[in-house]
Amino acid sequence: MLRIHFSPEDLRRLRLASDPDPLWEVVCTLHRLQTTQGRWAYADWHRGARATLAGTPLGAAVRRLLVPLLPRARYLPDFLTPAESADGLDRGLAAVVDTPPARVAHELGLLRSSSGVPTWAARLVERPAREELAKVLRAYYDAVVAPHHDRIHTELTGERALRAHEVLDTGVDGLLSGLSPSMRWHPPVLHIDYVEDRDLYLDGRGLRLVPTYFCWQSPVSMADPQLQPVLIYPLHHKRPPAPVRPADASLAALLGRTRAAALRGVASGATTSELARRLGISPATATHHTTVLRDSGLTTSHRVGNTVLHTLTPLGAALLRRPVPTAPAVRAAPAES
């Protein structure tokens, strides 16, 4: 059990990540490759990742370098998931390379005591070895995580919209009570089902919540309580629906101006009543449009209290990004002589 202790100042400094954290997604994908638990939720990704890595130099490097350093175990070295990763992969990898050698040696010692490390890991106290590790992390991210960026980003955007409405409707108490079935909020302590029993006192530093696409069921936090507090928690709480391509008839219906405006209106999340106000239509008409969009696989709906929140699916987001074709220029006929 992990118990996170909040003060009033910590509740004021509670934050939800606005973008995916690339290095935490890397860690969680490596864990997905090391277990069959939850594989059904990522079946398409798992098949693609295995096919991408099988028989390649990158696949060999992942088995030799990454899996031993980031095992699915009780302890993970914190320097491989730096806070700078919240600002993008480049910043995160630069922080990994810049980690002080003494900290690298200390955390590798903890990993050795927990699950063991290969003898080559001792070289990571040297900067060139960390630079090579960063190259492998980047290549792995580019190969098996980056191709799914749109889906990851869309899911996180929907999560932010959902949690924002929860805060507006029920306050921070409602937010912390509804994050995950493995968490229970008993003010001022958040109780989390965890791999070990410990207490984390935030002491006014606040907490950054990071919903993570490839995290499965069990939230994760930093091992060192002196680091900036962060809580990684899973986006998937239930079996995701199979992706649906809209039928031609649905796409034809979508070409109407009002329904296209409805699709744009839910890009940042909107309830049925909010959408009706934005478009100047009745709630019943808004419900009709959101039903068609949802049945076409372009949006998804979540119930928040007494309201229903609509957000885009990756297919809906891709449709909004698609450039609108322009009519070909009409060449003027030559004047008759």
Keywords summarizing the entry:
337 residues; 3 domains; alpha/beta; four-stranded mixed β-sheet; Arc Repressor Mutant, subunit A
Radius of gyration: 23 Å
- The proportion of strand residues reads 5-15%
Side by side, the strands of the main sheet go 3-4-1-5
Low-confidence stretches: 237-249, 324-337
Along the chain, the helix and strand elements come as: EHEHHHHHHHEEEEEEHHEHHEEH
- Give the terminus-to-terminus CA distance: 90 Å
Largest sheet: 4 strands, mixed
Name the average pLDDT. 85
Structural class: alpha/beta
Total count of helical runs of at least 4 residues: 13
Count the domains.
3
Give me the count of strands.
Answer: 11
- Percent range for helical residues? 40-55%
Large-scale geometry: globular
Description:
- The protein folds into three domains: 2-16 and 151-234, no CATH class; 22-148, no CATH class; 248-321, Orthogonal Bundle (Arc Repressor Mutant, subunit A), CATH 1.10.10.10.
- It is built from 13 helices and eleven strands.
- The protein has helices spanning 8-12, 22-33, 43-53, 57-69, 89-97, 101-114, 127-145, 149-177, 248-254, 257-265, 272-279, 283-295, 314-321, and strands at residues 2-5, 14-16, 183-186, 189-192, 198-201, 207-212, 220-221, 230-234, 270-271, 299-304, 307-312.
- The strands form three sheets. A four-stranded mixed sheet has the order 3-4-1-5. The chain has a four-stranded mixed sheet with strand order 2-6-8-7. Strands 9-11-10 form a three-stranded antiparallel sheet, with helices on both faces.
- Helix 5 packs antiparallel against helix 7 (127-145).
- The longest helix is centred in the middle third of the chain and has 29 residues, at 149-177.
- The model is unreliable at 237-249 and 324-337 (pLDDT under 50).
